[in-house]
Amino acid sequence: MKKRFLVYFLIVVVIYVIVTVLMKIGVIDDYIKLNLFLIMLNIILGVSLNLINGITGQFSLGHAGFMAIGAYTTAVLTTLEKPLPFYLTVLIGGLLAMLCGLLIGLPVLRLRGDYLAIATLGFGEIIRVIIQNIDYLGGASGISDIPQGIDWTGYFIITVITVVVILNIINSSFGRAMIAIREDEIAAEAMGINTTLYKVLAFMIGAFFAGVAGSVYSGSFGFIQPDMFNFFKSIDILVIVVLGGLGSISGSIISAIVLTIISALLQNYPEVRMILYSLILIVIMLFRPQGLLGTKEIKLSKIIPMLGGDR
User: Fold this and answer.
1) Contact partners, residue 63, CB within 8 Å, separation at least 6
2) Which backbone phi and psi does 143 adopt, to 5 degrees?
3) Please, which of 8, 229, 306, 307 could form a disulfide with 68 given CB 3.0 to 4.6 Å?
4) Which pLDDT belongs to residue 311?
5) Backbone dihedral angles phi then psi of residue 292, each to the nearest 5 degrees
6) 8-13 LR contacts (CB < 8 Å, sep 24+)
7) Nearest Cα to 155, choosing from 95, 86, 202?
8) Mean pLDDT of all residues in 6-19
9) Who contacts 252 (Cβ-Cβ below 8 Å, separation ≥6)?
10) How far apart are CA 279 and CA 215, in angstroms?
11) Residue 233 above 50 pLDDT?
């Protein structure tokens, strides 16, 4: 276990050092850096939604709403006369999103399937419309000139923390209970698992990291408006999860990378961009309907023999 942890840690450090060096010498320019930030942002969103949709088996379409809460929290708190430190606003944004996840989760997560999807979609739209009608938050025009408080290092650390926390939850007793609920909720309840508790817990954790992603977004791009967090944003995040494989964190990471790169490559063809993007997704889902990895995870022990068996 200690050997595996050390190897994983070294891999993360090596990736960070290589990218940092490439930035210093100019190989990674501003355009590549922007897309790198978008990849990490999508990883945070995809992994956190996968905990709800893939691991716990709940069909949520409200992730954009939680993201909006975090984004506007950071935007407001960093543009005050005495602004709060950026990373403190990220934590506050995540906690506020988690609180909203609790408030919406308690009544809504008693629903299942399509009914749950509609309810969470409605929640996300309610948040967007409320923000759009508050003049202090800039209304439909949004908030601009938000101080940029995060760099490559901050992005990388937050992304790694998100993935590590989600993986540890999945591999804990809480994660096993969530997986049991996904496989058969009635059987899980019959075995004494408090299904409502674990569904709400998954919803809150997913909402927290969606709020963090929103805070990071506003703190790096400097401008937000309500339409950035509409229904289509929730669909974009859902596509990352479904394409990577419901229940696979590795799949969500790979999917976030692939889809962000595809989107970037198609930017030169704006008139057919969404058509080509949609066709690529259709082809992938036709030949790989379970997603890129299904419910499986990439095990480094198969790539690096010195790690031994992965459990």
Assistant:
1) 45, 48, 49, 124, 206, 210, 233, 234, 237, 238
2) -120, 130
3) 229
4) 41
5) -60, -40
6) 8/300, 11/300, 12/160
7) 86
8) 88
9) 43, 46, 47, 49, 50, 54, 240, 241, 244, 245
10) 32
11) yes
Q: Record the tokens describing residue 76, joined without a space.
A: 């407001």
Q: What's the pTM value of the predicted model, to 2 decimals?
A: 0.90
pLDDT, tens digit, for every residue of 16-27? 999 999 999 988
Give yes or no for residue 289 having a pLDDT over 50.
yes
pLDDT, one tens digit per residue, over 63-115 is 999 999 999 999 999 988 888 999 999 999 999 999 998 988 888 877 777 78
